[in-house]
Amino acid sequence: MRHLLLIGGGHAHVAVLADWIRRGPPPDARATLLTPHPALRYSGMVPGWIAGEHERLRGIVDLAGLAAAAGVELVLGRAVAIDPGARHVTTAAGNRIGFDLASLDTGGVGHAARTLGEDPRLLEIRPIERFVERLDQWRRARAGDRVRAAVVGGGAGGVELALALRNLAGAGTRPEVTLVTGSAGLLPTMSRAVRRTTRGELARQGIAVIAADARFRDGALMAGGASLEPLDLVIAAIGSAAPEWPGAGRLATDRAGFVAVDEFQRSVSHPHVFAAGDVAARADRDVAHSGVHAVFAGPKLAANLRAVLGGREPAASYRPRWNSLYLLTTGDGRAILSYGPIAAKGCWVRALKRWIDLRWIDTYARSAGGA
Questions:
Q1: How far apart are alpha carbons 352 and 350 in whole angstroms?
Q2: 176: number of Cβ within 10 Å
Q3: Band of the pLDDT at 371, cuts 50, 70, 90?
Q4: d(Cα 43, Cα 290) in Å, to the nearest integer?
Q5: DSSP label at 229?
Q6: What separation in angstroms does the CA of 216 have from each of 68, 124, 235, 341?
Q7: What residues have CB less than 8 Å from 208, skipping those under 6 apart?
């Protein structure tokens, strides 16, 4: 039997597991899922949890349940090396797992300390599960205290986290929050209307915005030549870096170290290795690292893996729409909509976001036998 090794339990691999549940395993094929955690935390629902809009466990996908329902072996561990020529990976525990076909969906790695500098108050949002655990511990320890926080990163994630912290659930006094966007400014890839709407919402909620790069210097967070101290918490939402082990294993990568893949999510150097999500970079087109794209690429990846396991060539390609829908929660029961040049804000946008998020989560809960 041909062995498919799914390395990482990311959004795209969830779709692969769902495909095996719905259609059954491909003939003469078996699969193993190697992942550090038995569940996937959906990052899009983390700001809502911070603001108390839903419970911590609501944004969870049961990877163990999905694997069991799909007939896929679950191995809890983290890949630290790959030899695509010899067709095996090595885990952090030193175990070696062989494969005929492999797919990587491990996500990127945090680089906040390398970019901003070391500081005990710094929380990196990757890996997301560790971030949630550390933030929950911090919140419990500071319950009732008056706190000042800074969020570094002017993308959608940074905006949502800043608004969520301003509305921190269980806080006796609303935290004072500063959003440091970096020199690129606020939401640089979104439309002028969305930036204007978001800037107005940040001002309405009393969140200061600084369009400058941040860096720790002598124990102080500096931005635009000025100190932002005193601060009790600094959250870095500055995107992810590539893990080193795929490139060290001689998989082709782009200049930033992400696994270079073709239109079928297949490695450009080793056609028996696929990659999707934040660990990968399309060589044929520019696709931003975003959970939105990973979710939509998942079914295409599932189709291609099934085809190759069946002795056929992959044929499914994810082509991003000309614009993606982004829904940014404001932490107070509303949300901001971004779709191309269109911007909107209101409770109805928050209701739409909640419906989309829970539909995605609950679809996989039913597949895993959780509903």
A1: 5
A2: 18
A3: very low
A4: 10
A5: -
A6: 46, 14, 13, 36
A7: 177, 178, 179
As a whole number of angstroms, the distance between CA 78 and CA 254 comes to 23
pLDDT tens-digit readout, 106-138: 999 999 999 999 999 999 998 899 999 999 999
Using alpha carbons, select from 346, 350, 348, 347 the residue that is nearest to residue 327: 350
**CA atoms within a 13 Å half-sphere pointing along the CA-CB vector of 353:** 30
User: Structure tokens of 218?
Assistant: 């002598």
Token pair for residue 151? 């969020």
Residue 57 has pLDDT above 80, yes or no: no
Instruction: List Cβ neighbours of 161 (8 Å cut-off, separation of 6 or more).
Output: 46, 47, 50, 125, 151, 153, 235, 237
Q: Residue 349 has what DSSP assignment?
A: H
- Asked whether 193 and 163 are in contact (CB, 8 A), the reply is no
Using CA atoms, how far apart are residues 246 and 93, in angstroms rounded to an integer?
17
- pLDDT, tens only, 85-96: 999 999 999 999
- For residue 246, cis peptide bond before it (omega within 30 degrees of 0): no
C-alpha closest to that of 317 among 302, 300, 299, 292: 300
The CA distance from 197 to 156, in Å, is 13
Candidates 273, 318, 235; CA nearest to 106 is 273
Contact 128, 43 (CB under 8 A): yes
Residue 35 near residue 74 (C-beta atoms within 8 A)? yes
Q: φ, ψ for residue 272 (rounded to 5)?
A: -95, 10
